[in-house]
Amino acid sequence: MKKLLAPALAALMLLSLLTAGCSPRKEVNVYNWGEYIDESIFADFEKETGIKVNYSTFTSNEAMYSVLKTGGSDYDVIIPSDYMVSRLISEGMLEKLNFDNIPNFSLIDDSYKKLAYDPNDEYSVAYMSGVVGIIYNTRLIKEEITSWDALFDEKYAGQILMFDNSRDALAIALLKLGYSVNTTNEAELNEAFELLSQQKPLVQAYVMDQIFDKLESGEAAIGPYYAGDYLTMVENNPDLKFVIPEEGTNRFVDAMCIPKGAANKENAEAFINFMCRTDIAMRNVDYIWYTTTNREAAKQYAETLDPETAAVMFPPAEVLDKCQIYVNLPQNILDLYDSLWVRLKS
Q: How far apart are CA 11 and CA 5, in angstroms?
């Protein structure tokens, strides 16, 4: 019996070893905005943790939401904006974080904790912050731009770019009209829609990441976009200028979250913890030019900047006082946003 069993036992041991050797590789699937991370840090993360990063991007909060809503459970880390974090929480689409696995949360500045979109710091860790402004080509537009009015000026017809997402586009119209970006007044929203409809013939294109090529090349002269992306563009075209309009603008906070049912939750928490680290935050902010939420990294980096760049990355208090942060809106208003946007783009 022993002689007969020996070959069988040897075979089972070999199969066990082979199976162990073929165990699934540890990984984390990250879903982020375009041009919004230094991808070279992924190799460092994998070297330190043995976790491979699979990375993909989205163009807007609404596009990301649609993917998650229609079965996008393949993602382990997502980086939505403030109001979208709140919406995902309210719809039960996020996992609560285990902060025992994210000790570097202590390095995040207190001003980015317990914010309205996640008041108990249960579902998110703030990643980056910034403001929306107008970017324009000073070679093509000689006068100084100070107001949202410029995006509705007929003399720039065919040279104007506009956000290709409903929240940011309608917010610009609301700000121009003197309304809150978080209004739930349907009459005000319809008025903003009418303003965008009047603007439409002047618009060269509705864009998101496409704005880089169009503004850097001079194909278009003016458009609204995010401060950090402007600092990337101006490196390639020094004729570009950024201004925060006098009517005020949107200030946003983007945060790292884990979707409900994520297959690699602990790996995701390890990734979030890694991103919070001061040296990684420094590398990341130097690459993407947004305002890091890491307390020490922000302090160190601000000291290296010239005054003009510092004013874009770290706007003074009098500017921030005129900024508004988006909040999650009631479902009937979200439905109205969707219907107005479909009408505008059709």
A: 10
Q: First and final CA of the chain: distance in angstroms? A: 79
Q: Which domains does the chain possess?
A: 27-129+252-313 (3.40.190.10), 130-251+323-345 (3.40.190.10)
Lookup: tokens for 304 = 């290296």
Say if CB 257 and CB 102 are below 8 A apart.
Answer: no
| Side-chain half-sphere exposure of 62, counting CA atoms within 13 A | 13
Helix-helix angle 41-49:265-276, to 10 degrees: 120
* Residue whose C-alpha is closest to residue 310's, from 323, 298, 326, 328: 298
pLDDT in tens, 55-96: 999 999 999 999 999 876 699 999 999 999 999 999 999 999
The DSSP secondary structure of 280-321, one letter per residue, reads HHHHHHHHH--EE-BHHHHHHHHTTS-HHHHHHHS--HHHHT
Q: Classify 197 as helix, strand or coil.
A: helix
Secondary structure letter of residue 106 according to DSSP: G
Q: Which two tokens stand for residue 101?
A: 């696995």
Nearest CA among 317, 285, 320, 319 for reference residue 302 = 285
Q: Are 164 and 59 in contact (CB under 8 A)?
A: yes
User: Which tokens belong to 113?
Assistant: 């904790």
Q: Which two tokens stand for residue 312?
A: 């874009």
In the sheet with 27-33, reading across from the earlier edge strand, the strands are: 52-58, 27-33, 77-78
pLDDT digits (tens, 9 = 90+) for 192-249: 999 999 999 999 999 998 999 999 999 999 999 999 999 999 999 999 999 999 999 9
Q: Is 0.85 surpassed by the pTM of this model?
A: no
- Placement of tokens 């993602």 in the chain: 75
